[in-house]
Write a structure and sequence with these properties.
Blueprint: E1 2-6, E2 16-22, E3 29-30, E4 35-40, E5 45-49, E6 54-58, E7 65-67, E8 71-76, H1 118-127, H2 145-150, H3 173-188, E9 191-199, H4 201-218, H5 225-238, E10 244-247, E11 250-253, E12 259-265, E13 268-270, E14 273-274, H6 282-297, H7 303-306, E15 311-315, E16 334-338, E17 341-348, E18 351-365, H8 371-386, H9 388-391, H10 397-400
Parallel strand pairs: 12-15, 15-16
Antiparallel strand pairs: 1-8, 2-4, 2-7, 3-6, 4-5, 6-8, 9-18, 10-11, 12-13, 12-14, 16-18, 17-18
Helix pairs in contact: 5-6, 5-8
Length: about 400
């Protein structure tokens, strides 16, 4: 029996996906539920599992945009299992089998192994070029007609500069959507950034005193994100305009805090949402952020995980950033940028002391948030971080940490 495998719907409003990568080669024997492809939507990357066991015939190329419900491959359930199940999922821990020339990653393809398509071969011959000098962008490094058309013959003799390879890789649908949204944020909002700094010594003191007991009780580390999330929730309550967004001629205000947390995943920046952060404890925030970060890192983040959000926190400090102007995550009106913590001299009560300092940045939409609110919001963040016992813990550390 021949089974047609169709593209499932990744979520509401998504009508098209892109074949990011085939994890099997044409003619392979696949097991039921084995991941056979990665598909990109404009919101997430998802794995496509085989619906039955059998021999697979691919009906779409990597990079193809296919409609939801379209047939992307056929599986012959009467296909024979190879001896030793060489193509079984147990024997293929790597995404693409290296012994299959058709499925070898482009990065591992040498110039010598590249072959042009018939149309590309004719163009290359007319230009008098060596196929080895052209980087193929097709599957398994195959030189496409487009590659041949864009290739430029060398003009005259040149010094031997050594290897000067180039690669041309199509951005994933998710990455293209992120790029589109970032440009929209710059073009469609009156974005402005205000800065402040915070003395992180009080946070260090609280963490160092209770981190072991916190981990023993809750099974998660006590990081900075729970303090910042708590500080943001408090500041949003004091300055509700920051927790709102524009909708044409109207302002939409929220009485809850869904905090988007920017994390780096294998496909680029992703922004999963911590729902109702105002109702979560320190341990609850740390557990939820950890869960979402693992899903993003493993490529299992879903559209629902990233939908919504009323305010965003971005931590460039984990990559060593000292200062930046974060871009608003539309349609939100504000984003808080955290940065690297650096010991530097500061004036404390008329004396110079060395303190762990962090620069804070708030980018906001000036159409809906005035300077007074934006500055006040950032000052409220600073107050909470420099006196967490008073502003975030109601004077009781053990109760706040549920110890």
């Amino acid at each position: 029996m021949i089974l047609e495998m169709k593209v499932p719907s990744p979520g509401e409003s998504i009508t098209e996906v892109e074949i990011a990568q085939w994890l099997v080669a044409d003619g392979d024997y696949v097991e039921k539920d084995q991941a056979i492809a990665e598909v990109d939507s404009d919101k997430a990357t998802l794995e496509l599992p085989a619906e039955v066991s059998g021999t697979i015939t691919l009906k779409a190329e990597e990079g193809d945009a296919v409609a939801v419900g379209a047939v992307v491959c056929l599986i012959d359930t009467e296909g024979k299992v190879p001896e030793g199940k060489e193509n079984s999922v147990e024997d293929k821990p790597v995404a693409v089998a290296s012994e299959s020339p058709k499925a070898a990653p482009v990065q591992e393809t040498t110039y010598a192994s590249q072959t042009p398509s018939p149309a590309a071969r004719k163009i290359i011959a007319e230009k008098g070029m060596d196929p080895k000098s052209i980087n193929g962008s097709g599957r398994a490094g195959r030189i496409t007609k487009e590659d041949a058309v864009k290739a430029t013959p060398s003009m005259g003799s040149q010094p031997d500069w050594g290897a000067r390879a180039q690669s041309r890789t199509k951005l994933s649908m998710l990455r293209r959507k992120v790029a589109e949204r970032l440009v929209d944020a710059k073009n469609e909002t009156a974005m402005l950034t205000t800065f402040n700094e915070a003395d992180m010594a009080p946070i260090f003191a609280v963490r160092n005193a209770h981190k072991d007991a916190f981990f023993e009780k809750h099974g998660v580390k006590l990081g900075f994100m729970s303090f910042f999330t708590k500080a943001v929730v408090r500041a949003l309550g004091l300055f509700p305009d920051v927790n709102s967004m524009m909708d044409g001629d109207y302002k939409i205000a929220y009485d809850y805090c869904d905090i988007s947390v920017a994390v780096s995943g294998p496909k680029g920046l992703m922004v999963p949402v911590v729902r109702n952060a105002e109702n979560l404890s320190f341990s609850g925030i740390e557990k939820e952020i950890g869960r979402l970060a693992v899903r993003a890192r493993d490529g299992k983040i879903t559209v629902d995980d990233m939908t919504g959000g009323t305010f965003t926190i971005s931590n460039g400090g984990v990559f060593g950033s000292m200062l930046s102007t974060p871009i608003i995550n539309p349609p939100q009106s504000g984003i808080l940028g955290m940065h690297n913590i650096i010991e530097r001299p500061v004036a404390i009560n008329g004396k110079v002391e060395i303190r762990p300092m962090m620069y804070l940045a708030l980018s906001y939409d000036h159409r809906i948030i005035d300077g007074k609110e934006s500055v006040g919001f950032l000052v409220a963040i600073k107050e909470a971080l420099e006196d967490p016992l008073t502003h975030l813990m109601d004077g009781d550390v053990k109760k706040a940490f549920e110890l």
